[in-house]
Structures are given as structure tokens and as C-alpha cells.
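Margin note: ligand = adenosine-5'-triphosphate.
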Amino acid sequence: MPTDDEYVIEIENLVKRFGDQTVLDGINLKIKPGETMVIMGGSGCGKSTLLRHMIGSLHPDEGRVKLFGHVLADLGEDELDDIRKKFGILFQSGALFQSLSVGDNVALILEEHTDLDAAIIDFMVKIKLELVDLREASHKFPAQISGGMKKRAGLARALALDPRILFYDEPSAGLDPVTSASIDRLIIDLTQKLGVASVVVTHEMDSAFTIADRMAMLNKGQVLMLDEREAFEKLRDWPHDRLDELDETKQLIRQFLRGDAEGPLTEESTGESSYAADLLGIDNSKLTGGRSIQTTRRVPNPGGPKGLFKKFRRSKQGSPEGQDKS
Ligand SMILES: Nc1ncnc2c1ncn2[C@@H]1O[C@H](COP(=O)(O)OP(=O)(O)OP(=O)(O)O)[C@@H](O)[C@H]1O
Ligand SMILES: [Mg+2]
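Resulting structure:
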């Protein structure tokens, strides 16, 4: 186990309220260097709010958030700016400047935050774009590239200053399954090549299981389960005929992970104030038909990691398989 000094992020007893609503209710979470932590949970459970605390754009009402050993709320603007250079953020839209080419979007960050001369900046831009497989599109403008390419360009920008942590909020949102799989692979590649820690908020279970080293399941502003990916896989693949060995919370997490609308609790509850709906933070009506969580890349056999999962796990372990640039 890393000592406290070795965590890149430490969140201790974080409480955040908006008016009467307690959105984060005593979160404890530590992120190790180089690991990929996936944060999951139903819509509105506080994932993005948690991320905003990690980047210092919100401060806790109680508890504290430390990045690289510094309590963010105690830092002045200049110190916070220095810390901000050590992490990159991939926003949902890529957050590119429309009037600048892809290359200039990346160059701008380097011009603003470094004293490097133009030739070196050009060189750095090429390296960053190559990392996300977008060097050829350097002269294109955001309006001329696809959603997946925008995400890649946003990522190149997030990488501009060689961050030690990358934050992603729903990196696959709005992408088709193939493009979203390629973004997953990019996250894995970058983690391996650059050794950055990644914190990824996602609804997309296939993606979560592909990229995660550890996972945190949030519910109503609390961490319901925090563990290695394998522990979540075990729960997801837990046999149906042994469900009674799991407590109610575990059964529901299993249901969430599988994207099953019909879980044992859903079948038992007749609708009024369903614990399942309440716990998962989703509309009760969605539990009685259709899926609670939409996955776009279902595992063909829920009994074990097959297909895409297997391929990506192998690629994460460094096998040549899965290295194709899809
Ligand atoms: N600045 C704010 N002011 C007031 N309420 C807020 C603010 N930001 C978030 N909230 C509320 O906090 C709750 C959690 O929001 P958050 O965006 O963190 O959820 P989320 O888990 O990211 O959801 P989603 O999966 O839909 O993105 C929501 O009820 C939201 O309305
Ligand atoms: Mg969100």
C-alpha cells in the first residue's frame, strides 16, 4: 500500500451541500499514481460534483481534498494554478476553441503556460497529436472533425503539459460503440505509456470494466463500494442461483453492473418506493421495463469477460493483440 505521501489524490470525509441538498455525504477516496479509477453511479448521485472537487473548482463544506499532498482549499490562486498544470481534464465536448485548428488548440496551452519557443512548441504539439493518433488532422478545425476526433483533440490538449493525473467526465458519451471502444483503448495506452493516474466518471459499464484498475460505486453522495476491478467483475458475474448469498446492497450493485432491469429486488418490489430505484438513483418506471443502465457494448456471455473485454484486458497487459488502430 502506498503511504499517504504517495497518493496523488486524497479525499477525506468530503461533504458538499447545495442549499438543503447534501450532494456528497462523507466521501473517502484515495488515488494512487498511475492507476485508473472509475467512478460509477446513477444519474445525479454526485459523480461530476466529486470530480469538480478534485480539480479545485468546488471546495468542500466539510472534509478536505488533497492533490499531490496539498489541501486544495488552503491554496491561493497562484498555487492552485501551479497544481492545475499537473493535471489535464477531458471535458465532455472536448472543449476546443472553434476558431483554432486542432494543432493550435494544443499549442495555445503550451504558449500560455510555458516559455518554450515556437519551434519547440510545434514539436511538442506533434508529439501530443501523435499520442492520440491525430497528427494528420493538425490543420483541421473542430467543426471539420468527428465527435471521436474532438475527444482525441481534447485529450491531446489535456496532455499538453505532461500531466500526472487525467480527469475524464463521461469520455464515451455521445460516441458510437466502436469510437467509444477506441477512446477506451486510448485511455489504457496513455496510462501505460505516460504512467498518468486517470480518474474516469462513466455510466458506460463496458467501458468501466475495460479501463479500470479500481472502481468506486457512488450512491446518494456516498461510496457504496470501492474495490479492485476484479471484485466488481466477480459481483457482476455472480451466479443467479446463488443470489441469496449476497446482501441487498451487493445484489443491487450487481444489478447495476449488469444493466439488468430485472433483478431479484425489482421483481419482488411492486413499485411503491422501490429500494432498487431509490438506491440506484433511477426512475422507478425504468426498472419495470427496459434496462436500468444502457450499455452499448454488451458482453455476449455475462458469465465472464469475453470479446471486447478480453481483448482490451490483454492489450492492457501489453499483448500485441488489440493494438490495431480502430
Ligand atoms: N452548482 C450546483 N448547484 C446546485 N445543485 C447542483 C450543482 N451542481 C450539481 N448539483 C446537484 O447535485 C446533484 C449531483 O449532480 P452531479 O452533476 O454531480 O451528478 P452526476 O452523478 O454527475 O449525474 P450525471 O450522471 O447525470 O452526470 C444533482 O442533484 C444536481 O442537481
Ligand atoms: Mg455528471
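The chain is about 40% helix and 20% strand.
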